[in-house]
Amino acid sequence: MEGRNKVAATDLGWSVLTDKDLDQKVEAAYNRLLDNACKLRQEMSQDVSLGAALKTSLECLGDNMNDEDMILFNWHLANLEFANAGLLSNISLAFWDQDDPYDMGGDHGFLPGGNGRLDQLLTENVPITFEQTVHTIHYGSDGVQVVAGGVVFEGEMALSTVPLRVLKSGSIKFIPELPQRKLDAIKRLGFGLLNKIAMLFPYVFWDTNVDTLGHVVNDSSCRGEFFLFYSYATVAGGPLLLALVAGEAAHKFEIMPPIDAVTKVLQILKGIYEPQGNEVPLPIQTVCTRWGSDPFSFGSYSNVAVGASGDDYEILTETVGEGRLFFAGEATTGRYPATMHGAFLTGLRESAKMAHHASVRTLGLNVEKKSLKDAHSASVLADLIGSQIWNLAAFL
Protein backbone atom coordinates (compact mmCIF):
# COMPACT_ATOMS: atom_id res chain seq x y z
CA MET A 1 0.00 0.00 0.00
CA GLU A 2 1.26 3.49 -0.63
CA GLY A 3 0.39 7.09 -1.35
CA ARG A 4 -3.06 8.13 -0.22
CA ASN A 5 -3.74 4.90 1.68
CA LYS A 6 -0.99 4.87 4.27
CA VAL A 7 -0.23 7.96 6.32
CA ALA A 8 2.81 8.68 8.40
CA ALA A 9 1.21 10.03 11.54
CA THR A 10 4.52 11.52 12.60
CA ASP A 11 4.21 13.99 9.71
CA LEU A 12 1.16 15.54 11.33
CA GLY A 13 0.71 18.05 14.11
CA TRP A 14 -1.57 16.44 16.70
CA SER A 15 -4.34 17.99 18.77
CA VAL A 16 -3.34 15.91 21.78
CA LEU A 17 0.05 15.36 23.31
CA THR A 18 0.42 11.88 21.88
CA ASP A 19 3.31 9.81 23.09
CA LYS A 20 5.69 9.34 20.16
CA ASP A 21 6.18 5.64 20.87
CA LEU A 22 2.42 5.10 21.04
CA ASP A 23 1.98 7.06 17.83
CA GLN A 24 4.51 4.92 15.98
CA LYS A 25 3.14 1.71 17.49
CA VAL A 26 -0.42 2.38 16.33
CA GLU A 27 0.73 3.56 12.93
CA ALA A 28 2.71 0.35 12.44
CA ALA A 29 -0.26 -1.74 13.62
CA TYR A 30 -2.59 0.06 11.22
CA ASN A 31 -0.30 -0.48 8.24
CA ARG A 32 0.19 -4.12 9.22
CA LEU A 33 -3.57 -4.68 9.49
CA LEU A 34 -4.09 -3.04 6.12
CA ASP A 35 -1.54 -5.39 4.56
CA ASN A 36 -3.10 -8.40 6.25
CA ALA A 37 -6.58 -7.41 5.11
CA CYS A 38 -5.36 -7.14 1.53
CA LYS A 39 -3.77 -10.59 1.74
CA LEU A 40 -7.18 -12.00 2.62
CA ARG A 41 -8.51 -11.15 -0.82
CA GLN A 42 -6.25 -13.77 -2.35
CA GLU A 43 -8.05 -16.42 -0.31
CA MET A 44 -11.61 -15.26 -0.97
CA SER A 45 -13.87 -16.37 -3.80
CA GLN A 46 -16.08 -13.28 -3.63
CA ASP A 47 -15.60 -9.61 -2.91
CA VAL A 48 -16.28 -8.29 0.58
CA SER A 49 -15.86 -4.87 2.11
CA LEU A 50 -12.54 -3.45 3.22
CA GLY A 51 -14.19 -2.64 6.55
CA ALA A 52 -15.13 -6.28 7.17
CA ALA A 53 -11.61 -7.44 6.34
CA LEU A 54 -10.04 -4.88 8.67
CA LYS A 55 -12.41 -5.90 11.44
CA THR A 56 -11.41 -9.54 11.02
CA SER A 57 -7.73 -8.63 11.08
CA LEU A 58 -8.24 -6.43 14.13
CA GLU A 59 -9.96 -9.24 16.01
CA CYS A 60 -6.93 -11.42 15.39
CA LEU A 61 -4.83 -8.95 17.38
CA GLY A 62 -6.85 -9.69 20.49
CA ASP A 63 -5.78 -7.65 23.50
CA ASN A 64 -2.83 -6.04 21.73
CA MET A 65 -4.91 -2.90 21.15
CA ASN A 66 -6.14 -1.09 24.25
CA ASP A 67 -8.57 1.83 24.43
CA GLU A 68 -5.84 4.43 24.00
CA ASP A 69 -4.52 2.60 20.97
CA MET A 70 -7.99 2.40 19.44
CA ILE A 71 -8.45 6.18 19.64
CA LEU A 72 -5.46 6.68 17.36
CA PHE A 73 -6.35 3.65 15.26
CA ASN A 74 -9.78 5.10 14.53
CA TRP A 75 -8.12 8.28 13.28
CA HIS A 76 -6.34 6.21 10.63
CA LEU A 77 -9.64 4.59 9.65
CA ALA A 78 -11.17 8.04 9.29
CA ASN A 79 -8.28 9.04 7.06
CA LEU A 80 -8.86 5.90 4.98
CA GLU A 81 -12.52 6.86 4.55
CA PHE A 82 -11.39 10.34 3.54
CA ALA A 83 -9.07 8.87 0.88
CA ASN A 84 -11.90 6.76 -0.53
CA ALA A 85 -14.77 9.19 0.10
CA GLY A 86 -16.86 6.40 1.48
CA LEU A 87 -17.68 4.17 4.41
CA LEU A 88 -15.27 1.28 4.76
CA SER A 89 -18.29 -1.02 4.91
CA ASN A 90 -19.03 -0.11 1.28
CA ILE A 91 -15.49 -0.17 -0.16
CA SER A 92 -14.28 -3.19 -2.16
CA LEU A 93 -11.53 -5.23 -0.51
CA ALA A 94 -10.54 -6.66 -3.89
CA PHE A 95 -10.06 -3.41 -5.78
CA TRP A 96 -10.06 -0.45 -3.36
CA ASP A 97 -6.36 0.23 -4.07
CA GLN A 98 -6.35 -0.65 -7.79
CA ASP A 99 -4.90 2.78 -8.64
CA ASP A 100 -1.90 2.49 -6.29
CA PRO A 101 0.59 1.50 -9.04
CA TYR A 102 -0.01 4.90 -10.66
CA ASP A 103 0.40 6.95 -7.51
CA MET A 104 2.26 10.20 -8.13
CA GLY A 105 5.00 10.74 -5.60
CA GLY A 106 6.16 14.01 -4.13
CA ASP A 107 4.49 16.74 -2.15
CA HIS A 108 1.02 18.07 -2.73
CA GLY A 109 0.81 21.32 -4.64
CA PHE A 110 -1.30 24.35 -3.77
CA LEU A 111 -2.32 27.12 -6.14
CA PRO A 112 -1.94 30.56 -4.54
CA GLY A 113 -5.34 32.20 -4.72
CA GLY A 114 -7.14 28.89 -5.13
CA ASN A 115 -8.10 26.63 -8.02
CA GLY A 116 -10.33 29.35 -9.41
CA ARG A 117 -7.27 31.00 -10.92
CA LEU A 118 -6.62 27.90 -13.00
CA ASP A 119 -10.26 27.86 -14.11
CA GLN A 120 -10.00 31.47 -15.23
CA LEU A 121 -6.94 30.77 -17.35
CA LEU A 122 -8.43 27.66 -18.94
CA THR A 123 -11.75 29.31 -19.78
CA GLU A 124 -10.42 32.62 -21.04
CA ASN A 125 -12.32 33.67 -24.19
CA VAL A 126 -14.47 30.53 -23.98
CA PRO A 127 -18.22 31.25 -24.14
CA ILE A 128 -19.94 29.73 -21.10
CA THR A 129 -23.67 29.69 -20.40
CA PHE A 130 -24.65 29.66 -16.74
CA GLU A 131 -27.87 28.73 -14.93
CA GLN A 132 -28.94 26.25 -17.61
CA THR A 133 -29.76 22.90 -16.03
CA VAL A 134 -29.39 20.07 -18.52
CA HIS A 135 -32.15 17.47 -18.34
CA THR A 136 -32.01 15.70 -21.72
CA ILE A 137 -29.27 14.78 -24.17
CA HIS A 138 -30.19 13.47 -27.63
CA TYR A 139 -27.32 11.88 -29.53
CA GLY A 140 -26.97 10.01 -32.79
CA SER A 141 -25.03 9.70 -36.02
CA ASP A 142 -26.11 13.19 -37.13
CA GLY A 143 -25.04 15.08 -34.00
CA VAL A 144 -26.11 16.03 -30.49
CA GLN A 145 -28.88 18.09 -28.91
CA VAL A 146 -28.54 19.18 -25.29
CA VAL A 147 -31.81 20.36 -23.76
CA ALA A 148 -31.60 22.71 -20.77
CA GLY A 149 -34.99 24.03 -19.72
CA GLY A 150 -36.53 25.59 -22.79
CA VAL A 151 -33.18 26.02 -24.54
CA VAL A 152 -31.77 23.52 -27.03
CA PHE A 153 -28.05 23.51 -27.81
CA GLU A 154 -27.02 21.69 -30.98
CA GLY A 155 -23.59 20.49 -32.00
CA GLU A 156 -21.61 17.81 -33.74
CA MET A 157 -20.40 16.38 -30.42
CA ALA A 158 -20.90 16.80 -26.67
CA LEU A 159 -18.72 16.09 -23.66
CA SER A 160 -20.35 15.09 -20.36
CA THR A 161 -18.34 15.88 -17.23
CA VAL A 162 -21.14 15.57 -14.69
CA PRO A 163 -20.25 13.72 -11.45
CA LEU A 164 -20.93 10.00 -11.25
CA ARG A 165 -23.73 10.42 -8.72
CA VAL A 166 -25.61 12.65 -11.17
CA LEU A 167 -25.44 9.85 -13.72
CA LYS A 168 -26.60 7.43 -11.02
CA SER A 169 -29.55 9.65 -10.12
CA GLY A 170 -30.97 9.65 -13.64
CA SER A 171 -31.58 13.40 -13.48
CA ILE A 172 -30.22 13.63 -17.04
CA LYS A 173 -32.13 11.60 -19.62
CA PHE A 174 -30.12 10.21 -22.51
CA ILE A 175 -31.91 9.51 -25.80
CA PRO A 176 -31.27 6.82 -26.81
CA GLU A 177 -30.51 5.31 -23.40
CA LEU A 178 -26.84 4.72 -22.67
CA PRO A 179 -25.56 1.22 -23.50
CA GLN A 180 -26.33 -1.36 -20.81
CA ARG A 181 -22.60 -1.96 -20.33
CA LYS A 182 -22.13 1.67 -19.30
CA LEU A 183 -25.28 1.72 -17.16
CA ASP A 184 -24.05 -1.33 -15.25
CA ALA A 185 -20.66 0.29 -14.58
CA ILE A 186 -22.37 3.47 -13.37
CA LYS A 187 -24.42 1.36 -10.97
CA ARG A 188 -21.48 -0.69 -9.67
CA LEU A 189 -19.03 2.11 -8.91
CA GLY A 190 -19.39 3.92 -5.61
CA PHE A 191 -19.63 7.64 -5.04
CA GLY A 192 -18.87 8.91 -1.56
CA LEU A 193 -18.97 12.01 0.55
CA LEU A 194 -16.44 14.37 2.10
CA ASN A 195 -17.37 17.71 3.62
CA LYS A 196 -15.34 20.68 4.80
CA ILE A 197 -15.54 23.87 6.80
CA ALA A 198 -13.39 26.74 5.57
CA MET A 199 -12.67 29.38 8.23
CA LEU A 200 -11.03 32.74 7.67
CA PHE A 201 -9.65 34.21 10.91
CA PRO A 202 -8.46 37.75 11.70
CA TYR A 203 -4.96 36.43 12.39
CA VAL A 204 -2.93 33.22 12.50
CA PHE A 205 -2.90 31.53 15.90
CA TRP A 206 -1.55 28.15 14.80
CA ASP A 207 1.90 26.90 13.84
CA THR A 208 2.33 27.61 10.12
CA ASN A 209 5.33 25.27 10.00
CA VAL A 210 2.80 22.43 10.02
CA ASP A 211 0.52 22.11 6.98
CA THR A 212 -1.82 19.57 8.56
CA LEU A 213 -3.16 19.02 12.05
CA GLY A 214 -4.67 15.72 13.20
CA HIS A 215 -7.51 15.67 15.72
CA VAL A 216 -8.57 12.48 17.51
CA VAL A 217 -11.87 11.76 19.28
CA ASN A 218 -12.85 9.17 21.88
CA ASP A 219 -16.10 8.17 20.17
CA SER A 220 -15.38 5.82 17.24
CA SER A 221 -18.75 6.66 15.65
CA CYS A 222 -17.51 10.25 15.24
CA ARG A 223 -13.99 9.39 14.14
CA GLY A 224 -14.25 11.38 10.90
CA GLU A 225 -15.64 14.56 12.48
CA PHE A 226 -13.09 17.36 12.01
CA PHE A 227 -10.35 14.72 12.17
CA LEU A 228 -7.95 16.71 9.98
CA PHE A 229 -7.17 20.40 9.52
CA TYR A 230 -5.33 21.98 6.61
CA SER A 231 -3.50 25.26 6.99
CA TYR A 232 -3.75 27.48 3.91
CA ALA A 233 -2.20 30.55 5.52
CA THR A 234 0.94 30.39 3.39
CA VAL A 235 -0.88 30.07 0.04
CA ALA A 236 -4.32 31.64 0.46
CA GLY A 237 -3.13 35.16 1.24
CA GLY A 238 -4.87 35.08 4.61
CA PRO A 239 -5.31 33.13 7.88
CA LEU A 240 -7.37 30.27 6.46
CA LEU A 241 -8.01 26.89 8.08
CA LEU A 242 -9.90 23.99 6.53
CA ALA A 243 -11.53 21.28 8.68
CA LEU A 244 -12.39 17.94 7.04
CA VAL A 245 -15.38 15.72 7.82
CA ALA A 246 -15.23 12.13 6.51
CA GLY A 247 -17.04 8.83 6.77
CA GLU A 248 -20.30 8.59 8.70
CA ALA A 249 -19.64 12.04 10.16
CA ALA A 250 -19.76 13.56 6.67
CA HIS A 251 -23.36 12.34 6.29
CA LYS A 252 -24.38 13.66 9.72
CA PHE A 253 -22.74 16.95 8.83
CA GLU A 254 -25.24 17.40 5.98
CA ILE A 255 -28.05 18.09 8.45
CA MET A 256 -26.00 19.85 11.13
CA PRO A 257 -26.80 23.59 11.35
CA PRO A 258 -23.73 25.55 10.20
CA ILE A 259 -23.58 27.55 13.44
CA ASP A 260 -23.41 24.30 15.43
CA ALA A 261 -20.66 22.95 13.19
CA VAL A 262 -18.55 26.10 13.51
CA THR A 263 -19.11 26.19 17.27
CA LYS A 264 -17.88 22.60 17.58
CA VAL A 265 -14.78 23.32 15.49
CA LEU A 266 -13.96 26.37 17.59
CA GLN A 267 -14.25 24.27 20.75
CA ILE A 268 -11.75 21.82 19.30
CA LEU A 269 -9.34 24.58 18.33
CA LYS A 270 -9.64 26.25 21.73
CA GLY A 271 -8.94 22.92 23.41
CA ILE A 272 -5.76 22.65 21.36
CA TYR A 273 -4.35 26.17 21.43
CA GLU A 274 -5.62 27.99 24.51
CA PRO A 275 -3.71 25.68 26.90
CA GLN A 276 -0.64 26.76 24.93
CA GLY A 277 -1.48 30.41 25.60
CA ASN A 278 -2.87 31.11 22.10
CA GLU A 279 -6.26 32.80 22.00
CA VAL A 280 -8.61 31.48 19.32
CA PRO A 281 -10.63 34.36 17.80
CA LEU A 282 -13.99 34.14 16.13
CA PRO A 283 -13.67 33.60 12.38
CA ILE A 284 -14.40 36.49 10.05
CA GLN A 285 -16.06 34.23 7.52
CA THR A 286 -16.98 30.55 7.31
CA VAL A 287 -18.19 28.30 4.52
CA CYS A 288 -19.66 24.82 5.09
CA THR A 289 -19.92 22.43 2.17
CA ARG A 290 -23.00 20.27 1.66
CA TRP A 291 -21.89 18.17 -1.30
CA GLY A 292 -24.33 15.37 -0.60
CA SER A 293 -27.28 17.76 -0.84
CA ASP A 294 -26.02 19.52 -3.96
CA PRO A 295 -28.23 18.42 -6.90
CA PHE A 296 -25.34 18.99 -9.29
CA SER A 297 -23.01 16.56 -7.52
CA PHE A 298 -24.84 14.51 -4.83
CA GLY A 299 -21.49 13.76 -3.26
CA SER A 300 -17.76 14.30 -3.60
CA TYR A 301 -15.88 11.70 -5.63
CA SER A 302 -15.88 8.09 -6.73
CA ASN A 303 -14.63 4.89 -5.13
CA VAL A 304 -14.55 1.20 -5.95
CA ALA A 305 -17.56 -0.21 -4.14
CA VAL A 306 -18.05 -3.87 -3.28
CA GLY A 307 -18.80 -5.65 -6.55
CA ALA A 308 -17.08 -3.05 -8.73
CA SER A 309 -13.56 -3.03 -10.17
CA GLY A 310 -11.08 -0.72 -11.85
CA ASP A 311 -12.43 -1.86 -15.22
CA ASP A 312 -15.63 0.06 -14.52
CA TYR A 313 -13.73 3.33 -14.72
CA GLU A 314 -12.62 2.40 -18.22
CA ILE A 315 -16.17 1.52 -19.23
CA LEU A 316 -17.31 4.97 -18.14
CA THR A 317 -14.64 6.37 -20.44
CA GLU A 318 -16.15 4.80 -23.55
CA THR A 319 -17.61 7.05 -26.23
CA VAL A 320 -21.17 6.38 -27.41
CA GLY A 321 -23.26 7.40 -30.42
CA GLU A 322 -20.68 6.76 -33.12
CA GLY A 323 -18.23 9.30 -31.76
CA ARG A 324 -20.84 11.88 -30.74
CA LEU A 325 -21.06 11.68 -26.94
CA PHE A 326 -17.93 11.68 -24.76
CA PHE A 327 -17.32 11.37 -21.01
CA ALA A 328 -14.70 12.96 -18.76
CA GLY A 329 -14.21 13.55 -15.04
CA GLU A 330 -12.49 11.84 -12.13
CA ALA A 331 -14.79 8.80 -12.38
CA THR A 332 -13.58 8.09 -15.92
CA THR A 333 -9.97 7.34 -15.04
CA GLY A 334 -8.88 4.15 -13.35
CA ARG A 335 -5.38 5.49 -12.80
CA TYR A 336 -6.16 8.77 -11.05
CA PRO A 337 -9.74 8.63 -9.72
CA ALA A 338 -10.89 10.96 -6.95
CA THR A 339 -8.26 13.56 -7.85
CA MET A 340 -8.17 16.99 -9.43
CA HIS A 341 -5.29 16.05 -11.73
CA GLY A 342 -7.20 12.94 -12.79
CA ALA A 343 -10.20 15.02 -13.83
CA PHE A 344 -7.95 17.47 -15.66
CA LEU A 345 -6.14 14.71 -17.56
CA THR A 346 -9.44 13.15 -18.66
CA GLY A 347 -10.39 16.51 -20.18
CA LEU A 348 -7.22 16.48 -22.26
CA ARG A 349 -7.83 12.86 -23.19
CA GLU A 350 -11.37 13.51 -24.40
CA SER A 351 -10.35 16.66 -26.26
CA ALA A 352 -7.89 14.59 -28.26
CA LYS A 353 -10.53 11.93 -28.93
CA MET A 354 -13.05 14.53 -30.07
CA ALA A 355 -10.51 16.13 -32.39
CA HIS A 356 -9.72 12.70 -33.83
CA HIS A 357 -13.38 11.87 -34.48
CA ALA A 358 -13.93 15.29 -36.05
CA SER A 359 -10.95 14.73 -38.37
CA VAL A 360 -12.16 11.27 -39.32
CA ARG A 361 -15.59 12.61 -40.15
CA THR A 362 -14.12 15.47 -42.19
CA LEU A 363 -11.84 13.07 -44.02
CA GLY A 364 -14.75 10.69 -44.57
CA LEU A 365 -16.83 13.54 -45.97
CA ASN A 366 -14.04 14.53 -48.36
CA VAL A 367 -13.59 10.92 -49.43
CA GLU A 368 -17.33 10.65 -49.92
CA LYS A 369 -17.42 13.84 -52.01
CA LYS A 370 -14.44 12.66 -54.03
CA SER A 371 -16.11 9.29 -54.56
CA LEU A 372 -19.32 10.96 -55.68
CA LYS A 373 -17.37 13.25 -58.03
CA ASP A 374 -15.45 10.29 -59.47
CA ALA A 375 -18.68 8.35 -59.82
CA HIS A 376 -20.31 11.27 -61.62
CA SER A 377 -17.29 11.64 -63.95
CA ALA A 378 -17.33 7.93 -64.66
CA SER A 379 -21.03 8.13 -65.42
CA VAL A 380 -20.51 11.07 -67.83
CA LEU A 381 -17.62 9.25 -69.46
CA ALA A 382 -19.68 6.09 -69.81
CA ASP A 383 -22.52 8.03 -71.37
CA LEU A 384 -20.10 9.76 -73.73
CA ILE A 385 -18.43 6.50 -74.74
CA GLY A 386 -21.81 4.84 -75.07
CA SER A 387 -23.13 7.55 -77.35
CA GLN A 388 -20.01 7.43 -79.50
CA ILE A 389 -20.34 3.66 -79.87
CA TRP A 390 -23.98 4.11 -80.79
CA ASN A 391 -23.09 6.76 -83.37
CA LEU A 392 -20.37 4.57 -84.77
CA ALA A 393 -22.75 1.63 -85.04
CA ALA A 394 -25.33 3.79 -86.83
CA PHE A 395 -22.67 5.04 -89.28
CA LEU A 396 -21.59 1.52 -90.09
Automatic annotation (TrEMBL):
The chain crosses the membrane at residues 189-206, 226-246. InterPro entries: Amino_oxidase (IPR002937), FAD/NAD-bd_sf (IPR036188), Flavin_monoamine_oxidase (IPR050281). Gene3D superfamilies: 3.90.660.10, FAD/NAD(P)-binding domain. Keywords: Membrane, Transmembrane, Transmembrane helix. GO terms for molecular function: oxidoreductase activity. It holds the Pfam family Amino_oxidase. It comes from Anisodus acutangulus. The lineage of its organism: Eukaryota, Viridiplantae, Streptophyta, Embryophyta, Tracheophyta. Residues 22-354 form the Amine oxidase domain. This is Amine oxidase domain-containing protein. Belongs to the flavin monoamine oxidase family.
